[in-house]
Design brief:
The structure holds two protein chains of two kinds.
Chain A: E1 5-7, E2 10-13, E3 19-24, E4 31-37, E5 43-50, E6 53-57, E7 65-68, E8 75-79, E9 88-95, E10 104-105, E11 109-113
Parallel strand pairs in A: 2-11
Antiparallel strand pairs in A: 1-3, 3-8, 4-5, 4-9, 5-6, 7-8, 9-10, 9-11
Chain B: E1 4-6, E2 10-14, E3 19-25, E4 32-38, E5 44-51, E6 56-59, E7 62-67, E8 72-77, E9 86-92, E10 100-101, E11 105-110
The chains are: A mainly beta, B mainly beta.
């Protein structure tokens, strides 16, 4: 079936550094998402991106966070600077239509901020 | 905004029995309710969904029920097997951009 790819699978960085998480969404999908999961618990919505713009974001999407997808390449989540509480698994997801359709999730990037 | 509550944090059943996981939501405009399964250390895999124009949907051993008046929906897994053991997440969408997830139910099927 359709796959969302995330690179890398695990990233370890020092607090204060910048990190970029990469996502290759399903090819014909138009809506892209980042979710944050801590310790296998609740999936927390961060941001939704469509047509080059952030359409909706949550309180967890701090000023240090940004997303982009330049020219149809990777959909990225950048955190600059990172904080200890950013340690989590970040899942990218995509879907073709605006709503009422399932999200396809990647395998996640485990971010460890030391 | 939408809040989704998942009532059972853990659930343990014997192999062959049925398992039921219940969720409630707050936004009356919610119209799409998917379920996802997550095995340890892995991603979320879509299991089944239901839209608000129906109140029941079945796919093999999985049944989803939706009660719009009570703002409640549930996942029924019949004839459970050990490989059904995982964390199950319910979610709801009001037709906007985001999917709001419940807190997850850890299902253990004892062989």
């Amino acid at each position: 079936g359709p796959k969302v790819l995330q690179i890398p699978s695990h990233q370890i960085i020092d607090m204060g550094q910048m990190v970029t998480l990469n996502c290759d969404p399903v090819s014909n999908h138009l809506y892209f998402y980042w979710y944050k999961q801590i310790l296998g618990q609740q999936m927390e919505f961060l941001v939704n991106f469509y047509n080059g713009k952030v359409m909706e974001k949550s309180k967890l999407f701090k000023d240090q966070f940004s997303v982009e997808r330049p020219d149809g390449s990777y959909f990225t989540l950048k955190i600059q600077p990172t904080a200890l509480e950013d340690s989590a698994v970040y899942f990218c997801a995509s879907r073709r239509q605006f709503s009422n359709e399932r999200l396809f999730f990647g395998h996640g990037t485990k971010l460890s901020v030391l | 905004g939408e809040k989704v509550e998942q009532h059972e944090s853990t659930l343990s059943v014997r192999e062959g029995d049925s398992a039921v996981i219940n969720c409630t939501y707050t936004d009356t405009a919610s119209s799409y309710f998917p379920w996802y399964k997550q095995e340890a250390g892995k991603s979320l895999h879509f299991v089944i969904d239901i839209r608000s124009n129906v109140d029941r949907k079945q796919s093999q051993r999985l049944i989803v029920l939706l009660d719009k008046k009570a703002k409640r929906f549930s996942l029924h897994i019949t004839a459970t097997q050990p490989e059904d053991s995982a964390i199950y997440f319910c979610a709801a969408s009001s037709g906007g951009y985001k999917l709001t997830f419940g807190t997850g139910t850890s299902l253990l099927v004892d062989p």
